Amino acid sequence: MNLGLLKFFFIILFYSHPVWSEPVQKQYANFKLLDKISNKLVEKSIKVNESDLIETLNIQVFSCFTEPPNEIPEDYVLIDVKDNFQEQEISIYRGWMISSSPDVTPLEHPIYDLWLLGCSNDNTS
Among 3, 65, 111, 116, which has the highest number of CB atoms less than 10 A from its own CB? Predict the structure, then answer.
């Protein structure tokens, strides 16, 4: 392949690549929790910069983002999860959780599975 043709393909590839948009910050993170012992499902919305208790897990939400409408749908949340089992709070998870790939950033717990459903601007979503 000659250099001119290679340069042409590079220019086409470079300028045809979509412009990346900034993620949109939302006010609520929507979670689903499965109690693996009782098989009980709980859905909960937690406001950003607040924490809430689901069963024995205290979940603090630091931020929740969603991709803009012109991007592939994706939500991700930065959380800190503490387990209040036996009156002692133990940190069990801190990091990012991704809505489309819960198995990539899982909460590893013997009783609960927790995953992000999405981010929203109201607590009813």
Answer: 116
